[in-house]
Design brief:
Layout: H1 6-11, H2 16-37, E1 55-58, H3 64-81, E2 90-93, H4 94-111, H5 114-121, H6 131-138, H7 142-158, H8 164-178, H9 180-190
Helix pairs in contact: 2-3, 2-6, 3-4, 5-8, 5-9, 6-7, 7-8, 8-9
Length: about 200
């Protein structure tokens, strides 16, 4: 992951505000690549050139590198992008970070058993993120994008057995934008990527 997203790791010594801005820019680049490769997608305007805004913390480390080491990139990304748009100051609390961690645990618990079932029900092609999420990201509405991610998980939980494959693949594409570690692990388990999986992505 460090080789794929070096700019994020380079931003860690610069503070949480810089990491927050870099995370959104990195995800936006992925969205831009999707739009360029998808002729049917509607054009959207990129709006990610915002100056870093203040990120304050409550009962958690204010050091970005220490926080990354403690909670990992997936939880850190959700914590920095989920609550307010990128141009507004953010206050991180321990409870909010625990909430994101618990949500990812729920994702892991629900999604892992679906891998084999989804293989038999959906075309094994690289899944694509939902256009509404891409549009929200490119318009710097990062909090809306993550709310849509959570809605896509709710659709997965509510899907009928015969719908699971396509809904699962769509959710994985959405998830991997924000949570590359758990997303890549689940894509590997379904056979949608062939690169060797990293050990211990989630325990």
């Amino acid at each position: 992951m460090r080789a794929e997203r070096p700019e994020i790791y380079s931003a860690l010594p610069n503070g949480l505000g810089s990491v927050r801005q870099t995370l959104l820019k990195t995800i936006s680049k992925q969205c831009r690549s999707y739009l360029l490769n998808n002729a049917s997608a509607d054009p959207v305007q990129m709006e990610t050139d915002h100056l870093p805004t203040k990120v304050s913390t409550d009962a958690v480390s204010s050091n970005a590198w220490e926080m990354y080491q403690e909670v990992g990139l997936d939880v850190l990304t959700l914590s920095l992008l989920a609550d307010v748009p990128i141009h507004r100051p953010l206050h991180l609390s321990q409870n909010s970070m625990i909430g994101h961690w618990r949500w990812l645990r729920q994702v892991w618990r629900i999604a892992t058993p679906l891998s084999d079932l989804a293989k038999t029900q959906a075309d094994l092609n690289p899944p694509e993120a939902e256009h509404e999420i891409i549009e929200a990201i490119t318009q710097s509405r990062n909090n809306i994008a993550i709310a849509l991610l959570r809605q896509s998980f709710q659709r997965l939980e509510a899907a009928r057995p015969m719908e699971t494959g396509d809904v699962y693949q769509s959710f994985l594409a959405n998830l991997t934008l924000f949570c590359p570690f758990i997303g890549t692990e689940l894509l590997w388990r379904q056979g949608l990527i062939t690169a060797p999986k990293a050990e211990g992505l989630i325990e």
